[in-house]
Amino acid sequence: MILIGENLNIMSKIYGPAIKGRDAAPIQELVRQEAAAGMDYIDVNIGPARKGGAETMTWLVQTVQEAVDLPLSLDTTNPEAVEAGLKVHRGKALINSISLQPERLEKELPLVTQYGCAMVGLLWGTEGMPRDANERAALCVDLVYRATAAGIPEEDIWIDPIVTPVSVDINQVKSCLEFMSMLGEIAPGCKSVVGLSNVSNGTPARLRPYLNRTYLMMFMKYGLHAAIVDAFDEDLVAIARGKRPDLVSLVHRMMDGENPDFAKLTPEEVAYAKTVRVLTGQIVYSHSWLEV
Amino acid sequence: MSWLAFTIPTITYTGKVKEISLGPPERAVKVGNAGCYPFHLFEGEMGNPPRIAMEVYDVTPEDWPPAAREPFADVLSDPVAWAKKCVDVYGAEMVCLQLVSTDPNGLNRPAGEAAATARRVADALTVPLLVWGSGDVEKDAEVLRQVCEACEGKHLVVGPVQDKNYKKIGAPAIGYRHTVIASTPIDVNLAKQLNILLGNLGVPDELLVMDPTVGGLGYGLEYTYSVMERMRMAALTQQDDRLQFPLVCNLAKEVWKVKEVRLDDPKLGDPGKRGILMEAITAVLLALAGADVLIMRHPEAVRLVRGYLAEMMGVAA
Asked: Which residues, in sequence order, are bridge partners of residue A45?
């Protein structure tokens, strides 16, 4: 699985000011650590970047690639900033993301072929967030049609079904997963990517990794290609790298309907088993889900 | 030909709402105990019917429309007389004392005064008494603590208890043996979490009911409805032990604060009836969503809802 480190973000209390102040040192230190943690890509998230987005992205791409020899995921809603980043990027970049909003399609699809990069196809329509798996499927068909018509090869389209927090609406958590189980038939040849950590947004920080890791294992059942993740969650990286087949097997068996006897599981397995029950909607989420 | 035979789909219920006794044991009113979705009498036992608590204010309401003031014009300044009128004249099975005077953004009356009022009302009543604070996290912690203490032995139902003050109100409620109303802002996950926290604090299940937070008709009622549905699905079909508590809906103050109950516009019909009907409809919808206690204001709205509930429960009205 391809892992994209999410930690370089304009919203961060440390790196936000560093980006704005063009302070390279802390940023380069961060991305070196992300690379050392095993990331395949570095996500550079500068947000909407309405003012000076192009200059910011140019500087940031150069600054990051001076420090690490990795491709970047250019994460902004500003098309000019995306193009500025692509101009100076070494290797094959990933545009994160292109949604079905007309102005984004119009301005950014041509960039994918022009610069020979890949794109995240975000299933966000003109009416906003899809409400279930079927609406995701409909948006996916439209987006892939538009992208391939623009000359983009299927393997350069990474479909993002939009992960939402478990504490907001469990039905969206379930339908995102359901959509992933259908993606291979809907868009053969396309890849997939999820912004994993969003599932645990709103959850107390120390507990977030359980949701992130478990949801990742659930996506792995459907052959997830890539995930944007917290680079410093070592257990998560180990799972993605195939080093925890025991846990993956437990999660997948539960998804197939097995109801394990908790008394026979290790405490670690119990935590993941409880999390599967929350993420499948069998148990209503609460911040104390691991304790009850 | 049997291939056209149709079987009505039925829901498999695996859990039950807890039955909670409100008020002093010798004259307790039982709520909850549902073993099926609200009024799905063809699928199971509904347990106790929704109960109505009539509300009383601790200070003369100045901003109520005439239709709401009229039935209580003689008692608006006296919470004890008002509470007795609800029981003696309008047959209330429960009373809810709204301690609005304590609101720090309003009159900001001291906690001790509110506690004394609660005690006087509790002494005068033979039915269970709910005591509802202003909703201010810090002030309620003080007010409801003093209410719990002043009303020891009265078996009150006190709230709203929120995640930011549950320890300060929960502890005296346990100590003086009152029921607490766990209140969360229209969110099933937060509701479950607060019930877990109250349990960890030591609040026994038999002293716990839930307030899902009510949006009035036209002002978010549908969100409350959906969340109550989710709570009941979890309680009845997912055996979710931490969501199997009766639901208390403090609806009247939401209904009667909206501008539509005051507008003098012939196109909106008779203003004397409009608020009453809005209150009755809100109460009925909440009962359909699973409410176990409806906190109501107008006697005519109460009468309409009682009739509706009796018919829904299969009792001749």
From this structure: A9, A75
